[in-house]
Amino acid sequence: MKTQRGIDTHNAIVSAAAELFEKKSVHKITVSDIVKKAGVAKGTFYIHFESKDELVWHFLEHELDSAFVWFDKLIGKGYDKESIEEIIDTGVAYLEKRMFTLKMIHNVKFHSFLGQNKMKERFEEEWINPMILWLDAGNRKGVITVDDPKFTARFLSMAVHEMIDQIIIGESEYTLRELGDKVKLMLLKLIA
After folding, report:
1. What is the C-alpha to C-alpha distance for residues 106 and 90, in angstroms, rounded to an integer?
2. What is the pLDDT of residues 107-125, one digit of tens each?
3. Of 4, 19, 107, 159, which residue is 20 to 30 A from 167 by alpha carbon distance?
4. CA proximity to 25, closest of 99, 119, 110
5. Furthest-apart CA pair in the chain: how many Å?
6. pTM for the full model?
7. What does the alpha-carbon distance between residue 69 and residue 100 come to, in Å, rounded to a whole number?
8. Helices (H), the chain
9. CA 61, 89, 143 angle in degrees (round to 5)?
10. Is 24 left (phi over 0), alpha (psi -120 to 50) or beta?
11. Within a 10 A sphere around the Cβ of 51, how many other Cβ atoms?
């Protein structure tokens, strides 16, 4: 069982890393940098994390945790206009609240540090599987007709992800809200 002091130390390490991630590339940050910022000994770091990689994964999972909850809730949603709007509006609100974190993750090159394929393996299924299940359930209920739910889910996820990346780096002609509105229209046409 963790003590309050242990929990506080763990949180201090994660907070220190997050502050450092805001300022420079994750590649350039060392465990020594993190423990100095957190005010703990290097040995204490290794009590909480096996490596810097484990800390980075922990940080990402913590930052993206509520996205997993949102995707899991997708399975129980309906297929009418109101349900589609709720699904997309919730996603847009989530992204708007975390835009700073998403920019930070993008800018400090988490993908290149952890590996694009490793991140894809770790997170993609958690995001795409609920969408596949949602589309499959709609097909079984006879309320939608999607020939290949797996392909459709992957295609939509990849397309929306790419557009969000463009918004994050400031190279999109759309805002998050505008993207959300376009995705709503696309989904409504797709499942009509």
Report:
1. 22
2. 666 667 777 677 767 667 7
3. 19
4. 110
5. 60
6. 0.73
7. 20
8. 4-23, 31-38, 42-48, 52-74, 81-97, 99-107, 110-114, 116-119, 125-141, 149-168, 176-191
9. 100
10. beta
11. 11
